[in-house]
Amino acid sequence: GAGRREKQYRAHRGFGDRRGGVISARTYFYADEAKCDQHMETFLRCIDASSGSSEDGFSAIKLTALGRPQFLLQFSEVLVKWRRFFHQMAAEQGQAGRAALEMKLEVEKLQEALANLGIATKAESQHWFTGENLGVSGTVDLLDWNSLIDSRTKLSKLLLVPNMQTGQLEPLLSRFTEEEDLQMKRMLQRMDTLAKRATEKGVRLMVDAEQSYFQPAISRLTLEMQRRFNRDRAIIFNTYQCYLKEAYDNVTVDVELSRREGWHFGTKLVRGAYMEQERERAAQIGYEDPINPTYEKTNEMYHRCLDYILEEIKHSRKANVMVASHNEDTVKFTLRRMMELGIHPSEKKVCFGQLLGMCDQITFPLGQAGFPVYKYVPYGPVNEVLPYLSRRAQENRGFMQRANRERDLLWREFKRRLLAGSFFSPNH
Q1: How many Å apart are CA 408 and CA 389, to the nearest integer?
Q2: What sign for the dihedral angle of Cα 133, 137, 140, 141?
Q3: What is the 3-state secondary structure (H, E, C) of 120-139?
Q4: Cys staple from 124: which of 120, 239, 250, 427, with CB 3.0 to 4.6 Å?
Q5: Which of 393, 382, 390, 310 is nearest to 359 (CA)?
Q6: What pLDDT, on the 0 to 100 scale, is given for residue 415?
Q7: Contacts of 268 (CB under 8 A, 6+ apart)
Q8: Global confidence as pTM
Q9: Could you give the CA distance from residue 423 to residue 398 in angstroms, rounded to a whole number?
Q10: Domains and CATH numbers, the chain
């Protein structure tokens, strides 16, 4: 039964699960593969509903609902270690502090460093940079580096990287058991099933962002789907949370990958949803808080990422963005930049999204002016949807205050007209 399945697994310490103390964010708990199949069927029905209700609709999915989150945590750790190792090598070559895409490792020096660290001899590392035009220019950037960890190579099973804290070499990828390997493959199969249904139905699939300790794996798997399904148009959309300090680097690296490979970049930009969980976990486990220190810094990051994507739309017309925001200043910023860059609403490269029942004073004027604008509809059992809605209420406290002021003004005007005997005439 379901109760017994729930007892089969315990929440991993690294998850920051904390379901007892968190009321504002849903955390999926892996029960078994059958439950993941049920979630997939729900997502398929949502895709069908989106197709039947609007043209160019969207459907949102969460990858933690489609497999065991432990896999996402482990894979994320691998990607973070690998990227950190790249930055360490860049610092050794005097490039610390540069933007992610500006760092370029000299292959000769890199091979010497790998040999000195005891990771690989020069002969062993030589073949890493062949076969996919890597290092032909004599340098390797972050995109080249990331491509070395790929399902098509055996490198990830062999490579050891140095832990700079302990000074010891450690395996990049923890060995999966046979069952864990099957769980990973089933997650990928479910993603593939959903992407194919979305393509058939003409629905865009938005992969929601989740906690930062899952996100590197989620983004990497989403990029793999974009490479396959976004050849002719943007079907798969990744989500970037701009309250993260590394948001701009993540956006720029992924846009550059889409340029090099020629597929359509699709993204939803949000400010972020898991701040309390993120900060509590960082303090408990002992690593740097990944969240921007202030709301103003998050706003700056949002506009910086958005502006970069709008510039990309101007230059290539192969990028697409959903501005998922209830912030009026952000909407005004987007409209101004679209006008300055010559991006017309009819191109449908930029769309807007607000939650159903919120910010209609933003949604309806945008729609009437010809902009593609969407209402995000959460659905499900009340006890599962309430945490989502409570989070939105917390995030939009400023909006609620504006609504209260508007209500007070309307009430004052109502009393004024009633006392003046001019209830139906606004001209007196």
Answers
A1: 25
A2: negative
A3: CCHHHHHHHHCCCCCCCCCE
A4: 120
A5: 393
A6: 80
A7: 206, 237, 238, 239, 240, 321, 322, 324, 353
A8: 0.80
A9: 31
A10: 37-66+177-402 (3.20.20.220), 80-175 (no CATH)
The whole-number pLDDT of residue 384 equals: 74
pLDDT tens digits for range 120-130: 778 777 767 65
State how far the alpha carbon of 183 is from the alpha carbons of 49, 148, 180, 397, in Å.
28, 23, 5, 40
| Whole-number pLDDT of residue 152 | 45
Question: Which pair of tokens denotes residue 36?
Answer: 């993941």
Phi-psi region of 314 (alpha: psi -120 to 50; beta: other; left: phi over 0): alpha
CA-angle at 272, arms to 389 and 9, nearest 5°: 75
What pLDDT is recorded for position 41? 96
Task: Output phi, psi for 407, to 5 deg.
Answer: -60, -40
What's the one-letter identity of residue 11?
A
Low-confidence ranges of the chain (pLDDT < 50): 1-2, 4-9, 11, 16-24, 131, 135, 151-154, 428
d(CA 122, CA 97): 28
Query: What are the backbone angles phi and psi of residue 319, rounded to the nearest 5°?
Result: -115, 150
Taking the alpha carbons at both ends of the chain, their separation in whole angstroms is 69
